């Protein structure tokens, strides 16, 4: 029986499978630790075989067998309830949980065919979009349509744009007459995989409109900015029509050159691997999805990760991807400092993404992103989620996307601006 992956029953089946897999994984870690302790290796000796012996081996095997049997039975039972459970209305909390799980485990969910895996799609007003079959806020269609595409960040979905009674997309629709369209995607996949999917989705979208829209503006938060840059590169390689329609791109707190939090996670995992007694627990560090490990340096292309063990220690080997010509690119960096330009602001940024990374600065000139003067801004004070709720950030976006921003001369620099 086929289950709608976005239904309540689909989510329950996905969670059941995930619970069974988690139990098997924990069992493997415990057995490996048990085997290591029994072998009593030296502090720096190679690890033991990872398999217990004697009666202990039988016990661990029994746990695995029962878990697989119970997991299969639960999956079959939930599949039988699909006609009933699938009718329950979607829940914002449930959707937020699924988005978070996709951020952490999305590549695994996709590889195992788990119903929790999110497929990329476009949404408007919380509903999946049927290409070419909807109208904008003023009934605009075809060549008169001006679209603003909103691309969320790690562990988020389209509902995450609404913060403290404010939504950048809804406000741009109200103030500038733009047609707000949200991208929903599995943030645990590689950024480059999502970039290709977004390029293909947007090509189908603009072709399905019958007449190409007049223009597309993009506002991307966090990881979304990397996905957009990857999509533009993929679309250009494929000869797609949609990249030529892109007028402006605004990135909010995007780790263009990586995020220290992922680098610290990588170091912690490596440290656990030094001792044979801690090495079994280093596997927990490998739960991190491909999307998360891409944030170590800000990967946007397949070549940035293909052929590498993403959990191994290696330097920044990215292929330079300059900002494409003909598109007005803007960047906002969040900070935890109330004083623009302060040393802490320049180094720490918003606590997750350093200012230099968010504004595209890099010690290697080939990797530096050449944002034009007046098209970057350091927003003092807000923590990362507040970039989505801040009225000051919204006013900067509105200014840039208005005719006096992206369409006209570059906006004059303010004390918080950095070229």
Question: How would you describe the overall organization of this protein?
Answer:
This protein has 419 residues and is of the alpha/beta class. It is 39% helix and 11% strand. It has an eight-stranded mixed β-sheet, sandwiched between helices. Helix 7 (223-238) links the parallel strand 7 and strand 8 (246-252). Helix 1 packs antiparallel against helix 2 (54-80), helix 5 packs across helix 12 and helix 6 (191-208) crosses helix 7 (223-238). The longest helix has 32 residues, at 8-39. It is globular and about 45 Å long.
Structural class: alpha/beta
Radius of gyration: 23 Å
Helix content: 25-40%
Taken in chain order, the helices and strands follow as: HHHHEEEEEHEHEHEHHEHHEH
**How big a fraction of the residues is strand?**
5-15%
- Residue stretches low in confidence (pLDDT < 50, at least 5 long) are 29-45, 56-60, 66-78, 133-140, 263-284, 341-350, 404-419
Q: State mean pLDDT (0 to 100 scale).
A: 74
Shape descriptor: globular
């Amino acid at each position: 029986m086929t289950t709608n992956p976005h239904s309540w029953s689909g989510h329950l089946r996905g969670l059941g499978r995930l619970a069974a897999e988690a139990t098997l994984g924990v069992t493997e870690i415990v057995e490996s630790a048990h085997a290591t302790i029994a072998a009593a290796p030296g502090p720096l000796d190679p690890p033991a075989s990872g398999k217990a012996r004697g009666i202990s081996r039988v016990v661990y095997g029994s746990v695995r067998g029962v878990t697989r049997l119970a997991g299969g039975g639960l999956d079959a039972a939930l599949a039988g309830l699909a006609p009933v459970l699938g009718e329950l209305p979607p829940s914002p909390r449930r959707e937020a949980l699924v988005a978070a799980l996709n951020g952490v485990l999305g590549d695994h969910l996709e590889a195992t065919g788990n119903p929790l895996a999110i497929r990329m799609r476009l949404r408007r007003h919380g509903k999946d979009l049927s290409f070419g079959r909807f109208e904008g806020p003023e009934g605009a269609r075809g060549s008169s349509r001006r679209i603003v595409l909103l691309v969320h960040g790690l562990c988020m979905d389209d509902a995450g744009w609404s913060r403290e009674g404010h939504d950048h997309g809804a406000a741009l629709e109200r103030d500038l007459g733009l047609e707000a369209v949200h991208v929903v995607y599995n943030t645990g996949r590689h950024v480059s995989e999502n970039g290709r999917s977004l390029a293909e989705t947007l090509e189908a979208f603009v072709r399905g409109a019958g007449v190409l829209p007049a223009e597309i503006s993009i506002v991307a938060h966090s990881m979304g900015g990397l996905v957009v840059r990857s999509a533009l590169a993929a679309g250009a390689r494929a000869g797609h029509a949609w990249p030529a329609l892109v007028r402006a791109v605004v990135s909010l707190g995007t780790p263009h050159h990586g995020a220290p939090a992922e680098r610290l996670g990588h170091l912690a995992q490596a440290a656990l691997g030094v001792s044979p007694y801690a090495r079994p627990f280093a596997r927990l560090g490998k739960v991190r999805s491909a999307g998360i490990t891409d944030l170590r340096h800000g990967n946007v292309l397949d070549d940035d990760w293909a052929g590498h063990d993403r959990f191994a220690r290696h330097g920044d080997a990215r292929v330079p991807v300059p900002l494409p010509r003909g598109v007005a690119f803007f960047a906002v960096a969040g900070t935890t400092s109330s004083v623009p330009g302060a040393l802490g602001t320049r180094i720490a940024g918003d606590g997750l993404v350093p200012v230099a990374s968010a504004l595209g600065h890099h010690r290697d000139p080939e990797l530096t992103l050449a944002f034009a003067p007046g098209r970057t801004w350091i927003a003092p004070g807000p923590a990362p989620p507040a970039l989505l709720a801040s009225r000051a950030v919204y006013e900067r976006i509105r200014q840039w996307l208005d005719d006096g921003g992206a369409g006209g001369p570059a906006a004059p620099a303010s004390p918080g601006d950095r070229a």
